[in-house]
Specification:
The protein is of the alpha+beta class and 183 residues long. 42% of the residues lie in helices and 27% in strands. The strands form 2 sheets. Strands 5-2-3-6-7 form a 5-stranded mixed β-sheet, with helices on both faces. The protein has a two-stranded antiparallel ribbon with strand order 1-4. α1 crosses α2 and α4 crosses α5.
Amino acid sequence: MTDDIAHHYRHIMQQLGENPDREGLKDTPDRAARAMEFLTAGYHQSLDEVVNGAVFDSGTDEMVLVKDIELYSICEHHLLPFIGKCHVAYLPNGKVLGLSKFARITDMFARRLQIQENLALQIAEAVQEVTNARGVAVVIEAQHLCMMMRGVEKQNSSMSSSVMLGAFRNKPSTRQEFLTLIS
């Protein structure tokens, strides 16, 4: 697969008017292919594989919040990066999820061609699926290079998106507690 992707990068560079055989670009198609494979590795992962059994019995029923999970993804519209942070909270229902799994779930979905709104939903639904929580909340704040480098070229713009499931959607006080904790 890497060779095929590198071949296409080489062709794109030629179509842009570059010489892919010049010294600075000689290995660029291969490097770009490997980078794209890394940045889209989420297509080759499953939720079961990422969670790896790290769901544990627990009597806690209070909110669990993991803040500021770094994320890097690729906009499916322009193939340019968006970079930000993700906040995930859930209300346990007899089970808790291992702490590192929130970052791993975020990475699995972020390492696919994405739009931010779908990314937030995928993370929330995955946490809900593995924990059977009474509610899950996800907020993503990100800067999109497709808006910063091209088009309107707004350097200080950012986007926030949220998904609220269960008690976070149905109980305003629970939603407000979450939003207060992440602000």
